[in-house]
Structures are given as C-alpha cells and as structure tokens.
Amino acid sequence: MTKITTESVLRLLCDRRRWFVVALVVLALGSGWTWFSRAPTPGASSGVVSPREGFLAPDFTLKTLDGQMTSLSAQRSKVVVINLWASWCGPCRAEMPAIQKVYASERERGLTVLAVNGTFQDSATNASAFAQQYGLSFPILLDTDGRVSRMYLLSALPSTYIVDRRGIVRAVVIGGPMSEAFVRSKVEPLLQEAP
Amino acid sequence: MFPIIHLGPLAIQTPSLILLLAAWLGIWSSERESMRRGLPGGAIANLGTFAALGGLLGARLGYALLNRSSYAADPLSIFSLTPSALEPAAGLGTALIVGVIYGQRRKLPLRGALDALAPGIAVLGIGLALANLASGDGYGAPARLPWSIFLWGVDRHPSEVYELLGALAVLALWYWASRQALPPGVTFLLVVAASALVRLFLEAFRGDSALLPGGFRLGQVIALLALAACFFLAGRWSREGEQARSTQMEGPS
C-alpha cells in the first residue's frame, strides 16, 4: 500500500493541474450524489404520529376543569398551543400570563390553547386556583393518569407544542419561561397560513 | 436517547450539557494546539470565548429581527430567558465576525489561528453528533435495514451514529494532519473539507433535512460550496506556503 507522506500531499496540493482535476472529480461526484439523494417527498415524516416537529401531533381527549371533554382533533383548522404545566412549577407560572395575553389577542384569528395540567403530579384544586389567580380564559385540561404526558414524552415542565391548522407539530419548546414575543413569533406564521 | 438527566430536583437537558462540554473541550484543545504552534497563550481561548458570547448575542438579535413584528410591542423580551429564541445562522455569522475582529486586534496570524481552531471544530462535530444521539434530533430517513433503529414511530437509519463515526474520522484526520509539516492554514482547510464531505454524504440518510425547491437538501448544497472553497484555498495557500519556505531556505543573498 502506498504510504501517504507530507511530501506526496504537498506535491498534489501544489500541482495546479492535478489539484484542479482532483477538485473537479470530487465536486462532480458530490454534485451527482446531491442530485441522486434528493428527498422524494416534501416530508419524510408525513403521516407518522409523534410529538416532534414535522410529525402529526398525537391526539388526546381530556376532561376540562369545568367538566367538559375536549380533544385535540376537535381543534383541527385552528392553531393550537399545547402547554404541559403544573401549578408548583416556577417557569410555568412565569410564562402563563404571556400565553394568556397572546390567546386573548389572537383567538379570533383561530388560535386556541390547551393547557394540560399534569394532575397526576398536581391536583385539580391547585390547577383551578392557579387558573383563577392568573385569569386564564382558555381550557385547562386535567391529565389525571399521566397518559398525555407520556404520549408527549414529557421530560421537563413546562413543555409546549405548537400545532398548525393541519394538526402537524411545528415547534416544540422544552422548558421555559417563554416570553410573550416568543410565543407570538411561533404562532404568527401559522395563523397566517390558510385554514 | 437520554434527553434529560434528573439530578434530584434538577432536570438537566442532556444535549445542552453535551454541547457545553464539547465547546469547553473544543476551546481547550484549540488553546493547546495554539501553544504548540507558537501563538500567544490565551489568545485562542479568548477568541473562542468572545466568539461564543458574540454568537449567542447575535443569535438572539437575529431571532428578534426575523420576528420583529412579534418583538416590536415588547422589545425588552430580547433579554428574556427563553432559551429557544435563537437564530443559528445569525449566531454563526456573528461569532465569525467577532472572531475575525478579535484576531485582528490581537494581530494573530490568520492561517496559524485557523490551524489552531481545527481540533476545536473536530471536537464540536463529535459533540453535536452525541447531542443528537441524546435528543433524537438529526434523525435518519425511514429504512428497514439490519442496523435500523426504531425512532419516532418507524425504523430509521441511525444517522446520529453515522455522524458520530464521521466526526471521529474528521478528528483522526486532524490528528494526522497536525503531525505533518503542512503550510499554514492547510490543516484547517483539510478539517473543514473533511467535515463538508461527511455532511455531503451523510445528509442523504437524514429524515429531517431542510429542503430547497426540487427536493435538494440544503445541508448538501452548503457542503458542496464549502468544499469548493476549501479546494480553491488549499491549492493557493499550499503554493504560497511552499514559495515562502523555499525563499527562507535560500536565505538572504
């Protein structure tokens, strides 16, 4: 086997003609590979359900604080902010007023918020007191058995999933607190999309 | 996948921790390399630190600028603790500008400083692959292969593992190149070119590529451009380096 030495590398690099040929061959092969490996479909993840950007958001149905059943699939054609939270979580407290402000100003344009309380590690009483304290006007859903938290692979509180009008997750924000401007920056482009 | 490490009441995001460690290790290895190459002590570590801080600031400002209608009503939100409000391209651009300004002010030789940064780039590549492995980001395209992994609902290419192997190969190349008497700047170009080649090849197996019209993958197009620039500069810098060396060997007449 030919040993690669500094001299042989330098000879190749300094020889204009040979180096040009090497560059041309590599770039031609690279261009060919780029052409050959074009993505066949707009999104390789289309149709697959997973709580990640580009995937269909997992559907769920939960009871709200006022006893009604609400599901994600019923919100189709709306932009949905799914916020997983608990009353004892500091960043959840910090970001909830920002979410409420954006919801109040954008609900007419098709924004909805599903605030899923991790009731299995909190309580409906605390969730209710929290909603009153912060004047939350969007539905508070009670995840009493942790099913939705598991479905959304909850690893930290708060976690926020922003779902477009077609039910596809477009942004995932793990942790917080989110500022009002940040929430707006995430929902505004989706609100502008046609239903 | 280990996206979160729970330490008592603390939930630490593993990918962020890995990236932080990789940045520290990258700056440390670049600093060691700069000492070996005779650059002033602390210069590369400071350059890396300032570039990282500048990059962070630039990434936040870039995000706010791109979403100016959202930030106009509440400009102070720019200073909020929201960790996701960052624009990576703006961050990278700002980091480069800050690095160049710092290098010029400290009168660092450009090509020598780039060579010193090369191991840091290789280490960061490994950190990025490990962070993706921990978070499940950078996932592969669906594929039924004996070595496929089940991730996000389907069997996929283990693209995070491919990229880890690629990054290790780049580090090995840097180790070899750094032991050769190559002209200034060429080791850096070799590392960048190898990283671009790895990206060009492996991007084809990704399931989350940013796409251009026609289905072209943005990562591959950028890699091709980087590769072309490296070929051009490597030839030129090598010839200049060799000329300078032969002039030195001839000595003053």
Summarize the SSE layout with pairings.
The complex is a heterodimer of chains A (195) and B (253).
Chain A: H1 6-14, H2 16-36, E1 61-64, E2 69-71, E3 79-85, H3 90-106, E4 111-117, H4 124-134, E5 140-142, H5 147-151, E6 159-163, E7 169-174, H6 180-192
Parallel strand pairs in A: 3-4, 4-5
Antiparallel strand pairs in A: 1-2, 1-5, 3-6, 6-7
Chain B: E1 4-7, E2 10-13, H1 14-36, H2 43-66, H3 68-72, H4 88-105, H5 110-135, E3 149-151, E4 154-156, H6 159-178, H7 186-202, H8 218-250
Helix pairs in contact in B: 1-2, 1-5, 2-4, 5-6, 5-7, 6-7, 7-8
Measured by residues with Cβ under 8 Å of the partner chain's Cβ, the largest interface is: A-B, 48 and 58 residues
Under the CATH scheme, the architecture of the largest domain in chain A is 3-Layer(aba) Sandwich
Task: Count every beta strand of chain A, where a strand is a DSSP E run of 2 or more residues.
Answer: 7
Q: Helix amount of chain B, in percent?
A: 55-70%
- Compute the CA-based radius of gyration of chain B: 20 Å
Q: Number of helical runs of chain A? A: 6
Strand order of the largest sheet of chain B: 1-2
In short:
Chain A has about 200 residues and is α/β, with parallel strands linked by helices. Chain A has helices spanning about 5-15, 15-35, 90-105, 125-135, 145-150, 180-190; strands spanning about 60-65, 70, 80-85, 110-115, 140, 160-165, 170-175.
